[in-house]
Structure formats: C-alpha cells, structure tokens
Amino acid sequence: MRPYIKIIDNIFKESVEYRLNHILSFIVIALPLIIIYFLWNTIFYGKNLVGGYDKPAIVTYYILAILLQDFVYPGVNYEISRDIREGTLSNYLIKPINYMGVQFSIKTGASIPYSIVAIVITLIFVFFMRSTIVFQINIFLLLLFLLSVILAFILAFLISYSFSLLFFWLERTNSIELLLNAVLPLSMGMILPLSFFPHSLEILLDFLPFKYLLNFPIDIYLAHLKIERVIQGMGIQVIWIIIFFILSLWLWKKGTKKYQAYGG
Amino acid sequence: MSIIKVEKLTKIYKSHISKPGVLSTIKSIIKPNYVTVKALKEISFSVTKGEMVAYVGPNGAGKTTTSKILSGILYPTSGRVSVMGYIPWKRENNYLSQITFIMGQKTQLWWDIAPMETFLLNKSIYKISESDFEKTLDELTTLLDVKDLVHIPVRKLSLGERMKMELISSLLHKPKVLFLDEPTIGLDLLSQEAIRKFILEYNKSYNATIILTSHYIKDIEIADRIILLYRGEIIFDGNKEEILERFIKKRLVTVTFNTMPEIAKIPYNIISREGQTIEVEIEHKEISKFISFVFKSFDVKDVKNQDMNLEDAIKEGFKNASLY
Description:
The complex is a heterodimer. By secondary structure, chain A is mostly helical. Chain A has eleven helices and two strands.
C-alpha cells in the first residue's frame, strides 16, 4: 500500500504548486450552479412539482450533480493515453508496481484539492439558499449515500481506465471521446434527473452502469428510493465494478503485449 | 558465469501507414495498410556478471529495442532471453527489484516537485529500509555532488543536474543489472565526465552488470566490451583492441630523419613528404617490421605512430556493414 499512498501525497504536493488552478475551478463549479438555480426558478414558476421533483429537490439534485461530477465522470484518462502513446508507460513497467494501482492513486490524489474547493462552495451556497435545499439529517441515509458515492468513484475509475487502455490499439483519441461525451452526461443524469425520461428508456438505463455513477447516489440522498431499491442498486454497482475490473485486467494483459514503447 | 543470455532474439514491429487524403483514410479503415520493420534479426550474445558492455549502433539499429526487451518493457517476436534466470517480459517483482533502466531522453522524476519526493516514492516501491535509504542517498549525492539540490523542484534543475537526480533515483535500490540508454545525451562536457566517472565507479563498487547505449566515444571507451549493432544484426562483439585490429587495416606513421635518405630506398606507401619528414601508410600488422626497418637502415630522429582511433574503427565497421 505504501507506494500508492506516497503517490497520492506527491500528486497533492504537485497540485499545491499550481494553486491558481484551484482558484479558477471555483468559477467552473460556482457558475453553473448559479445559472441552474435561476433556470429552475423560472421553470417552477406557478408549479409545485416537475417530473416528480419539487423545487428544493431539484436544486439539491443539481448542487450534488455539479459537486460530484468530477469524481464520477468516467471520461478518457489523458494521463493513460499519453503514457501509452508517448511511451512514458515504460517508467512504470520497469518497476515492481501495479499500473492500475498507480492510476487509481493519481485519480484519488487529484480529487483532494477539488474536494476542498467543492466543500467550500457548497457551504457558501447552502448558506445563501438554505430555504430551497433538502437537508438530509437521516444518518443512515447519509452513510448509504457516502457508500454509493465511493462505489461510484471506483466504478467511474474502472470504466475510464478500461476505455483508456484501448489506446494500445487505437491511434487517435477523438472517436472514443466523442462517443463517451455524447452518451455519458445524459445517461448519468448530469443534464436531467433520469425520471424525466420516458419509462422505457429509464428501464434500459437501470441495467447500464452510467446511472449508478450519479443519478443513483443523489436519489439516495434525496430519499427518493425505497431501501430495497438502494440495496439492489448497490448490488448492481458492485457487479459493474467486478465486470470492469476483469475487463481492464484482460485489456492490460493484451495491451502490454502490443505496447511498442515509442520514443527514446 | 553469464548473467544475461540472449539467443536468436527477433523483434518485428508492425505499424499502420496512413496516407494523406480522405479516400485513402476511408480505405485504410476497411483494409489497413501495415508495414513490418525487423528491428532485431536473431541476435545472440551473453554478458558476464560485473561486465560493462557498450551497445553501439546508428540510430534505428535496434539498441533501445534490445534494452527494452531485456528490461521487460517489450515482448519479443521470437527468441530466448534470460537475465539472472528470469524471463524479463514476465515482469516478476523479484526481477524488477534488481534492475533499472535509465533513459537520457526521458525523465522518470516528478516534474513539479522536488527529486526527494521521487526518491521517497522509489524507497517505498522497492521496500528500501530507512537506514539503507539514508546511507545510499548520502553516498550517491556525495559522489555526484548534488546534496543541496534534492529539495528543489525538478523543473528548476539544469539538464545535467536532472540527469544526476535521474541516476540517483534509479539506483537507490542498488540494482544488479543496469540498462543505460544514452545517459549523457545533451549534457555539457563536465557533466558528461562526472556521469561517466560515476557509472564506472558504480560498476566497480557494486560489481553491477551494465549495458550502456551511447553515441559518444568517451562513453563507449569506459566499457569492457563493445557490441556493434547494425540494422538489427550484431556485426562485432569484442574488446577495444579487437575492434581496432578488425576494422583499422591501415595506419599512418610519421618519420623524421636527421639526414634525408633517398625515397626509393623506402619500399612503403609514402603519402606525403615535407622537408625531413615523411608520412607512410602501413598495414596494421606490418608496423613493427617497418619501424625496425627504418631505424636499422637510416639516421632517424623521430617516429610518430598515429593513435589508433576507436571512433574511426567503429565508423569503418558500420561502413563495411553497409556494403552488404
């Protein structure tokens, strides 16, 4: 475990070197929050419920969605694609260390400064909007929410890791990126809560992994799910984690055989 | 006892060729065009423990490919390799803990933080004990004279300083087999010399086996043995004396006379004459015969034997190989 903890530490130290970036990420997080708040204020004008959500639930949904998206968005990992295409992967291959572990540590380490910024923004936001926010005080639900976020973080990492390993075979990155960026925000529930979608689409999304990255944990927080549904959902999270874990091991084994260690 | 054994090692790279134009791009999706490049063609050699081998060849000869296969980065296409009894590309932790690969053109250090952080990371990766770490670090930083720099972010170091840090970070676990890929590339003369001295020192004090790739003649000179690689084939394998003998067929000898003899009396190929001095081109093996001849026959003031030049020998070797 030690080397992986040291990597988290190094990533954190590295990010401290670029403090300005984190100040800028304040804007990146805060701006959409403000826009979304005013947008839904207008939509709710004269209505109590939209798509099964009342106004505080929707506002809370988006606050959580924006705060969590950085942890659970399984986009292409540029670190990995660069390692493969530019040959820096060799640095890890010659050491007695596990590459998946290295990348997981890097992802974890990189999440720390973001979390700090996110928490500060949440506190400010919550202070100004306390009347239109759902405060979950049920400790049990909060623990379930936290657990599902951790599972979502692991699942997101494994999906992104598996996709990024495809660069052992692909020369260009754009096609996968386009595909992911087209499918992910909608199917995770980043743009709209999934209950706004037609029922048939909702059922399809129940079986895919994406919903469990964002929409599912938030619905736990909002107490929108019965306990059986929560347990079932976490089971599905675990199943997808196992599937992508095995897939990534297989891709790694095949990919490193094909690896050509360009450059140098 | 040989620590590295390579038998009939072959590596073939397969890569896409993409031509410009929309039509050919679409074509290549349906039927991809491949080119195969034979980087290594059934090469064989072995290295004994503690030996320092210079692995020399023009760009694209397959030097780095060999090192990458031996260190487990690449899978070979065919052939057998054993290093300390391990098959490198299985990448067993026991094997990886005993080797290192240093690339002059690539950094393994964390760019934005101090080298010390990379050292500490390697300490935990290789499970180096606190006391060993302190001792080795002190030793290496003293030898390379960079004690004061270990806490400065890597990006602020000069190339030479960075290379020294690179060496330290790669040697903290005291590897037994080292692959050094152009470790002095782009460095100033003093840094080059410091690094050469250091490599030699490490080789001697730890009895470490070293495979050194370089284009600089001074790097090559510190090796016990030279392997010349040309287009994926070994064209020479032996020590410095052997390489000179093999590729330098003729040498220049300068003779200065007290009294100039008649030229016709010297039955050798005289290529220049200036006052009392002549320059003679002579077959390698005839030199001692020639020298005793001039001393016996004439009143000689001075004989200068041109140094045998390793660089010329290597160039000659590659030229010969390119003829086939």
